[in-house]
Amino acid sequence: MSETKDSTVSLADEDDIKEVLSEAVLGLWDVVNRLTRLRPSKRDRYRVTIFGSARVQPGTFGYDETKRCAAALAEMGCDIITGGGPGLMQAANEGASSNPERAQSIGIRVDLPFEQEINSFVNQTFEHRTFFTRLHQFVLTSDAFIVAPGGIGTVLETLMIWQLLQVHHLNNTPLVLVGNMWPGLIEWAKTSMLSPDSPLASEQDMEIPQCVSNSDEALAIIEQHRIKWLENQSASKTQP
Fold this sequence. Notes:
Layout: H1 14-35, E1 46-51, H2 61-76, E2 78-82, H3 88-97, E3 105-110, E4 124-128, H4 131-141, E5 144-147, H5 152-166, E6 175-178, H6 182-193, H7 203-206, E7 210-212, H8 215-238
Parallel strand pairs: 1-2, 1-5, 2-3, 3-4, 5-6, 6-7
């Protein structure tokens, strides 16, 4: 389509209509990308996103341990963010809601064909139509990520954060993988991607996720990071 300042497109011209729509959508994405470059200069609250399975039931070890971890983070003064659904997301929100004076319990949900209602322990909800915009909000609003055991969705979220840390779109953000399912993933990545003949990644990339065996080890990592975060926040408040 040869476009001029006063050019118009006939609704009967399907090819030109597709081109106009394509250009308009790309233009909108450019606007969105520019807006997401903006960051608050100071944030008052430290926020931890907890990813994990929607299938784990209350009363199981995984549920109770995730709830305990979130409650300990809330006691530190950390807000807890999850996908807002059932399973370990609910466990984390339940743990956060045990200390409402010190922590917010946040859910960032997505529309699914099999509808998942927001769990009852969320006190602030955000709704998304796509996984892509939802993941973007996790990135924009989180200071650390803890990954509990989970399925394909949890793996997707984990690899997305890992990749953003690899290319430095995220910096100085802990990615802590809890439980015995994750070392196998890291070992697979090392074996498959660090071939001396044709490496597909660097050894430093494999050091980005921190695998720990239990919640107490994850809490220790987050606590140390939060202390440095608070120091940085305090220093920024003293600057003109």
